[in-house]
Amino acid sequence: MALRFALIGCGAIGTALLELVKDDAGLIAAAIVVPAGSEADAHTVAARVAHGAQVLSAVPADGIDLVVEAAGHTAIEQHVLPALQRGVPAIVASVGALSAPGLPEQLEAAAREGGTQVQLIAGAIGAIDALAAARVGGLETVRYTGRKPPRAWKGTPAEEGRDLDALGAETVIFEGTARDAACLFPKNANVAATVSLAGLGLDRTTVRLIADPAVTENVHEVEAAGAFGRFELTMRNQPLAANPKTSALTVYSAVRALRGRVAPLAI
């Protein structure tokens, strides 16, 4: 039997996800949940890549096996928490939203109440399994560096006091904790939040964010050390065509998590 899922959000990530799974026999996009006033765009997407999906303002009370979130902090509070409390499992893509004080605990409590589980995707970064395993044996330091073209930082605090279009060299636009990075750069720092939640936590993970006119990709670097030894990871991700603030790998990660729910063999 096919898995029926409700997609929360129909922006660049949600639309790309639907395009990639539209021919998967084991997956049915049963509903697209968007805020009031956004129905027209969602109907257009549904007609193209999610035939039969209802466009709604809330997750249906029944007929849904899974919720997939791709819409941000407000959507987690409005839709994911109630779904979990009803016993519907969820996949969350907006991991950066969990920098909000108390939100991770609310998700855990809602999943526990509903006897189900919420999965946070790895998104644009790799080695999350190794980082989480290292924490078991004793993790001492974790540092994340995010390097993106200046245009990827437009519309963020990086524009304060500087002209991003005129940068002639790499410029550090933020240095601090993962919690502060995710709060100040919510559309750019999902990776920082993911790395911290897998490792030492939001307040013990150090983060540097860099605007670099010499790069065209989104470059993610993670350095970790502890009882396990140490590792250094560098990933050079192509940005999502519809949104340069997001790596295309974020969409692929969400699709992998979704397909893993129905695959006979998953890793």
Task: Please give a structural write-up.
The chain is 32% helix and 28% strand. It has 267 residues and is of the alpha/beta class. The protein has two domains: 3-120, Rossmann fold; 128-246, Dihydrodipicolinate Reductase, domain 2 (2-Layer Sandwich). A six-stranded parallel β-sheet has the order 3-2-1-4-5-6, sandwiched between helices. Strands 8-9-7-10-11 form a five-stranded mixed β-sheet. Helix 1 crosses helix 8, helix 3 (73-85) packs parallel to helix 4 and helix 6 (178-184) runs antiparallel to helix 7 (190-198). The mean pLDDT is 94.
Number of strands: 13
CATH arch. level architecture of the largest domain: 2-Layer Sandwich
Query: Percent range for helical residues?
Result: 25-40%
Distance between the termini: 21 Å
Number of domains: 2
Number of helices: 8
**Class per helix and strand makeup:** alpha/beta
Q: What would CATH call the homologous superfamily of the largest domain?
A: Dihydrodipicolinate Reductase, domain 2
Query: Strands of the biggest beta sheet: in what spatial order?
Result: 3-2-1-4-5-6
Portion of residues in beta strands equals 25-35%
Biggest sheet record: 6 strands, parallel
Low-confidence parts = none
Order of helices and strands: EHEHEEHEHEHEEHHEEEEEH
Overall 3D shape:
globular
**According to CATH, what is the topology of the largest domain?**
Dihydrodipicolinate Reductase, domain 2
CATH secondary-structure class of the largest domain: Alpha Beta
Mean of all residue-level pLDDT scores: 94
User: What is the radius of gyration computed over CA atoms, rounded to a whole number of angstroms?
Assistant: 19 Å
